[in-house]
Amino acid sequence: MLLVFPLAVTWLAAVILAVLDGRRERVGYVAVGALAASAIGLVALMVDILRDGVAQQVAGNWAYGVGIQLRADVLDVTFALLSVVVILVATVFEVLGRVRSRVFPALACFMATGLIGLSLTGDAFNFYVFFEIAMISAYVLAGYGERTRQLRAALIFIIVNLLGSVLFLIAIAGLYHLTGTLDMLEISRRIPVVNEQPSILLATMIFVAFAVKLGIFPFHFWLAAVYTGTRPAVAAMLSGALANIGSYGLLRFGATMPRELELGAPVLLTLGAASIIYGGFQAISCRSATEVLAYSSIGQVGYILIALGIGGHVGLVAAVLFSIVNSINKTLLFLAVPLRGWLVGAVMAIAAFSVAGVPPSSGFFGKMGVFRAAVADDQPLVIALIFIGSALSFIYMFQLYNGRFWDISAEETRDGVVPSVLARRGLVCLLAAFVIVIGVWPEPLLYLSEQAAYAIENPIQTEPIPDQLAGD
């Protein structure tokens, strides 16, 4: 029941909300309630998994190994919960202002359904199905607002990401042809004994598909136009939740194809370094706040690739930890930038320190995790890169803060700008406080990252269980 509930509640809410007018405030709060219920269900599932181990169910009355499986370990639930919380916060942010489209609440729930589903499925094709549910929701949300720039951003987003989706589908078909199964645990057992050349080709296609979602260099060309063209709540969803498809996908399929991940380590390190340097310098050269955040996103995901390229237990812990911290940072930044008021200036200062990796923010532990991995693997160039990337982050975040929030009270007096909606400012303040709490008390996050890395390294096959998703 715990495994099904988070997925079922967002799916049912999305279907119901699709026929309602999402511009009505109470409809928006129904979506908020459904997302909150799903998040609570995922927390309960996490507690259950930490206590009893991997949770697994088989759909219908099919035998184990034949029917489509739902399977959840700490890694799966961590990314599912992270995605739902980001979508929940972004939805609350939009509802506290004014929802401008009747379909927004339903699309938020559909996106959450897709991200939860791909995180909890144990079947590669089912992963693709949920992947597309999330992406189709994102395609429509990218045009939310229906102005010229939003529609242009949606068109770019659709074209580029459809190419990535096609590559991923071809790779899934290739994996089935190569291994004779779509079960991801079975694939991980069979892939080491198949011919190396076709498996490397398939791994490359999977990597490109997820690299497009992450927006790493040189697959970044769509990202700035989309992030700057969408509304703040949608940009937060795309950068803080949807981009998790790339992070989670690389971790999950990296665990499924460990030989190919190890062979591709030099490529991951190279592209990660290029993303950090390119994103940092581009962000420094930008003057628009949303452009700075867009190019910052390119630079920050480079650290995830660096951690994956280093590999080993320490590298996997760092990749999970940085993915979580980066998702929180981007959500906070994209929601705070359009707001005004001295409270928002304080929030932006906290977010800037977190991106730069300055304690006591959560970003410090994200950078420290990658640093530890580099030291453990004796990678002096990577250590130097971390310091260079952090310096670039500090420069462009200081530029952003200085140009937009340093003298915000004077700007409001001079231009007649009034502070933003108090409830929205309160929301970003709560998120900023969470960033500080993680920085002061990081032990739960570090523990989850350790457990998630252990789940990647030890994908234990549980015995078939009698509970069925249907037919009982």
Terminal CA distance reads 12 Å
Protein structure class: mainly alpha
| Fraction of residues in H or I helices | over 70%
Average per-residue pLDDT, rounded, comes to 83
Largest sheet: 2 strands, antiparallel
What is the N-to-C order of secondary-structure elements (H for helix, E for strand)? HHEEHHHHHHHHHHHHHHHHHHH
User: Number of helix segments?
Assistant: 21
- Physical arrangement of strands within the biggest beta sheet: 1-2
Please give the oligomerization state of what you see.
Answer: single chain
Which radius of gyration do the C-alpha atoms yield? 21 Å
Protein name: Na(+) H(+) antiporter subunit D
Organism: uncultured Thermomicrobiales bacterium
Family: Belongs to the CPA3 antiporters (TC 2.A.63) subunit D family.
Membrane topology: Multi-pass membrane protein
